[in-house]
Amino acid sequence: MRHTRLGAAALTAALLLSACGGGGGDEGEDSGNAAPAGGPRPGGSLVLQLPTEIDEGLNPMTTSDPSTMGLISGTVYEKLVEYKTGPDVTSLEIVPDLAESWKISKDGRTYTFKLREDVRWHNLPPVNGRPFTSDDVVATFEALQKTTEVHKWMIEPVESIEAPDDHTVVFKLTHAYSPLLDYLAYHFNMILPREGLEGEFDMQKQAIGTGPFMLDKHTPNVEWVFKKNPDYYIEGKPYLDEIRRPIMSDIAAVTAALRSGRLDVGTTSDVNVAKSLDGKGFTVNETPGAPVSVFINPEREPFDDPKVRQAFMEAIDWDGMGQNIRGRYNLTSLVRPDISTAALSKEEVLKLRPYSPQNAKKLLAQAGLPNGFSTKLMVQRVDDEDVREAQWMQDDLAKVGIKMELEMVDPSTGIDRRRNHDFAVAKALRGVHLPDQVWRDFEPDSLENYTQIDDKELYELLDRSRTELDDGKRDEIYKQMQIRMETVIRQVYYPIQKFDYSIYNERVRDLYDSPIYQGKRLADVWLSDS
């Protein structure tokens, strides 16, 4: 199996779904609620918080909403390959899902997948429980290449997908492409039935997959309900009869629902809330989450001057902000330390991006702004910490003469305005996971290239990273790219990585932090009597 080794903190918790990202458990810790003696007990309903309602529909071909992916990927729909989950996971290990095995040619240009032969689609019209075959895989990826700009870039080098028989699929590439297997395991690339792709049912409103759970009903802005797939191919699973996903964003409401037993699993970024519940009928896991992201628009004066962008960042004590507001955090560059060995160390980050109000003032003077200037910060608010961080930034910038007005927006508005470049400076949480995915954001045709980066040298490094099959050499390329972003481009920063807290009722068993977004782990979850 393929592995991507992580740093000291392990994985991204699929529990921590929000409009922006997730987290993961510390390596070496037994995260989640382990099973007691006696083994799993079938039945019951798990009530699992969904922090935000989806806003782009259910169709995986057209949505870029991470809440949608967390809702249906792995639960309703499955993929060719998956990221392993469980109590002992300390790396992003790629394991079989609908494909039971695969081979990669020596030149990295041919991928051959052998599919499971015992899989059926959900017994819902018009698919009606028919067998899953290679034709569905071909239909999915051919549709992806033709119909969507959302994530077809993930398979851009694939020139053909062939099905020599019902249970074999062959991907042929124009050139070696090191991220391909990672992207096939990523939550976007769910395998869809040909009937949906050909319009026999509305994939915006209905989801018919091969996964352990079936979409039952949806009450907008209230709740999603999933029921057990009785024909699931893994014997005895799933254990749960039902999963309920109430939409709850207010932490006071989440806390009250946990305490009353109306909610089995919730999440928070507030360490005090987590501490108040830990050990009192609940298990709490601390997990690294999404990076805090800062986008500086060079089309807005005075940020067209790189010296001003540098002054803005060096005027802020990011380390102090992490300590005082988040409590637990990682000081970071662009690549997440919990995901990749290509991440820069804290010491390397401080050397590239020191906290230096004195130098910030000098840079502003050199830019012809000795008295500073006024600007606006658009803040995408998910929790109270987002606001407190913005206020911290505001206070630090005022000390060097930069007067910054704060403008609070909801996640949907924030994403829309960033994509339309409608901001001077924007603060958000950018839920990217894989190293290649980080850099994809900055390509000219990316929807997420909010600051319109266009840098020839960065793109040359990106091309090299994608054809480099040696992990160590690829890491070095990623480090060069981070250094260039921090010292030359100076338009996008992920200065700190926050930590989150997943809170489990103790009756919830075998629910573990898992890599990236994926819901298949819920097939292993069961509820104890105690």
3D structure, described in words:
Residues 23-45 are annotated as: Disordered. It comes from Nonomuraea mesophila. GO terms for molecular function: peptide transmembrane transporter activity. Keywords: Signal. The chain is of the alpha+beta class and 530 residues long. The protein has two domains: 45-264 and 507-527, Periplasmic binding protein-like II (D-Maltodextrin-Binding Protein, domain 2, 3-Layer(aba) Sandwich); 289-498, Dipeptide-binding Protein, domain 3 (Roll), CATH 3.10.105. It is built from 15 helices and 19 strands. The strands form five sheets. Strands 11, 12, 13, 14, 15, 16 and 17 form a seven-stranded mixed β-sheet that branches. Helix 11 links the parallel strand 14 (373-380) and strand 15. Helix 7 packs antiparallel against helix 10 (357-366), helix 8 (318-326) packs antiparallel against helix 11 (384-398) and helix 14 (456-467) packs antiparallel against helix 15 (471-489). The longest helix has 19 residues, at 471-489.
Question: What does the secondary structure layout of this molecule look like, with pairings?
Answer:
Layout: E1 45-47, H1 66-72, E2 81-83, E3 94-96, E4 99-104, E5 110-115, H2 134-147, E6 158-165, E7 168-173, H3 180-185, H4 194-197, E8 213-219, E9 223-228, E10 242-246, H5 251-260, E11 265-268, H6 271-277, E12 282-296, H7 306-314, H8 318-326, E13 329-331, H9 346-352, H10 357-366, E14 373-380, H11 384-398, E15 402-409, H12 411-419, E16 425-429, H13 435-440, H14 456-467, H15 471-489, E17 492-505, E18 508-509, E19 526-527
Helix pairs in contact: 7-10, 8-11, 14-15
